[in-house]
């Protein structure tokens, strides 16, 4: 049956990298129907909101949604609900995609592009499972208040419930079964009640239902350090929304560039997934043809795997990206001079 893919190019380098995703889709010749909608700053400019109700409805009706990137200086002084980023948060919440898979794999050909020594990163294969629709990103109360003494207070609430923790932990344990079976759960249970509950509930679920999972716990500050000291100690890292955001950007540099890391955000089985490169709109290089499209194209591979159930095609896309890089085509972020378009061409040719 024809699968429906909704593309949301977004802002900055978003349209540049999703343009290359389209070329890969055309070359693959799969039974996929592709639609497109405005999103982020582009939607604010044209429609007055970062994501329209209609776009949310189209996303919920699709089999998968692939987003480029949102945000940029043009919209950075708006109140929060009028920002491109708010559109992304609304979409994640509406789709209820609570488990964000962010794989950080180091291609052997790129081990020298990493900020770390080759022997520390060669063969690296970490799967982050980041909680995506809760925690401090969504907790209430939130806002900026004027206090009587003339001070202002910025307020955000970090919170997790038992069920929010258990469903994402389940996703991590299920994924880890197909990997090494090792899960490291990361929080700050030493200073936060929400972190303590996280640790207790993750351990409880493991003891109740996943006796074969080898579960360890680590404080987030130590994890940030360990990722740079000895990243290959990790297999699956389960963590909350904010720590997962930061630790996955950190891990990107272990693989060579932020422009390489894809992600899949999944909810309940049968519901559409949301796929995005983990990088942003990169205003510093936008419009110059310098962006690496690999993260977006690898996100398409994750969509093909998780939402379209086509493991063969997903593997083909992943091997094509690796082959293009091995063949020497590299954008500037990974030490080359290729343009976004040339990188896309090399990947399409490798298919
Ligand atoms: P960023 O990820 O956009 O860029 C960080 C650095 O990485 C920049 O130097 C950029 O040039 C580089 N980079 C990122 N992607 C690249 C690629 N594909 N190829 C080559 N280099 C790449 O982060 P930022 O500068 O902190 O944020 C810019 C805007 O993007 C902000 O508005 C932010 O909110 C937004 N943002 C959006 C997303 C998203 O849409 N999912 C993610 C992160 C940041
Ligand atoms: C990401 C981004 C987003 C996040 C922003 C743009 C809302 O940084 O996808 O990693 O913080 O989740
Ligand atoms: Mn991020």
From TrEMBL:
<feature type="domain" description="Isopropylmalate dehydrogenase-like">
    <location>
        <begin position="4"/>
        <end position="347"/>
    </location>
</feature>
<comment type="pathway">
    <text>Amino-acid biosynthesis; L-leucine biosynthesis; L-leucine from 3-methyl-2-oxobutanoate: step 3/4.</text>
</comment>
<feature type="site" description="Important for catalysis">
    <location>
        <position position="137"/>
    </location>
</feature>
<dbReference type="GO" id="GO:0009098">
    <property type="term" value="P:L-leucine biosynthetic process"/>
</dbReference>
<dbReference type="InterPro" id="IPR004429">
    <property type="entry name" value="Isopropylmalate_DH"/>
</dbReference>
<feature type="binding site">
    <location>
        <position position="249"/>
    </location>
    <ligand>
        <name>Mg(2+)</name>
    </ligand>
</feature>
<feature type="binding site">
    <location>
        <begin position="72"/>
        <end position="85"/>
    </location>
    <ligand>
        <name>NAD(+)</name>
    </ligand>
</feature>
<comment type="function">
    <text>Catalyzes the oxidation of 3-carboxy-2-hydroxy-4-methylpentanoate (3-isopropylmalate) to 3-carboxy-4-methyl-2-oxopentanoate. The product decarboxylates to 4-methyl-2 oxopentanoate.</text>
</comment>
<dbReference type="InterPro" id="IPR024084">
    <property type="entry name" value="IsoPropMal-DH-like_dom"/>
</dbReference>
<comment type="similarity">
    <text>Belongs to the isocitrate and isopropylmalate dehydrogenases family. LeuB type 1 subfamily.</text>
</comment>
<feature type="binding site">
    <location>
        <position position="221"/>
    </location>
    <ligand>
        <name>substrate</name>
    </ligand>
</feature>
<keyword id="KW-0460">Magnesium</keyword>
<keyword id="KW-0479">Metal-binding</keyword>
<feature type="binding site">
    <location>
        <position position="102"/>
    </location>
    <ligand>
        <name>substrate</name>
    </ligand>
</feature>
<keyword id="KW-0464">Manganese</keyword>
<feature type="binding site">
    <location>
        <begin position="280"/>
        <end position="292"/>
    </location>
    <ligand>
        <name>NAD(+)</name>
    </ligand>
</feature>
<dbReference type="GO" id="GO:0003862">
    <property type="term" value="F:3-isopropylmalate dehydrogenase activity"/>
</dbReference>
<protein>
    <recommendedName>
        <fullName>3-isopropylmalate dehydrogenase</fullName>
        <ecNumber>1.1.1.85</ecNumber>
    </recommendedName>
</protein>
<feature type="binding site">
    <location>
        <position position="130"/>
    </location>
    <ligand>
        <name>substrate</name>
    </ligand>
</feature>
<keyword id="KW-0028">Amino-acid biosynthesis</keyword>
<comment type="subunit">
    <text>Homodimer.</text>
</comment>
<feature type="binding site">
    <location>
        <position position="245"/>
    </location>
    <ligand>
        <name>Mg(2+)</name>
    </ligand>
</feature>
<dbReference type="GO" id="GO:0051287">
    <property type="term" value="F:NAD binding"/>
</dbReference>
<keyword id="KW-0520">NAD</keyword>
<dbReference type="InterPro" id="IPR019818">
    <property type="entry name" value="IsoCit/isopropylmalate_DH_CS"/>
</dbReference>
<dbReference type="GO" id="GO:0005829">
    <property type="term" value="C:cytosol"/>
</dbReference>
<keyword id="KW-0560">Oxidoreductase</keyword>
<feature type="site" description="Important for catalysis">
    <location>
        <position position="188"/>
    </location>
</feature>
<dbReference type="GO" id="GO:0000287">
    <property type="term" value="F:magnesium ion binding"/>
</dbReference>
<keyword id="KW-0963">Cytoplasm</keyword>
<feature type="binding site">
    <location>
        <position position="221"/>
    </location>
    <ligand>
        <name>Mg(2+)</name>
    </ligand>
</feature>
<keyword id="KW-0432">Leucine biosynthesis</keyword>
<keyword id="KW-0100">Branched-chain amino acid biosynthesis</keyword>
<feature type="binding site">
    <location>
        <position position="92"/>
    </location>
    <ligand>
        <name>substrate</name>
    </ligand>
</feature>
<dbReference type="Pfam" id="PF00180">
    <property type="entry name" value="Iso_dh"/>
</dbReference>
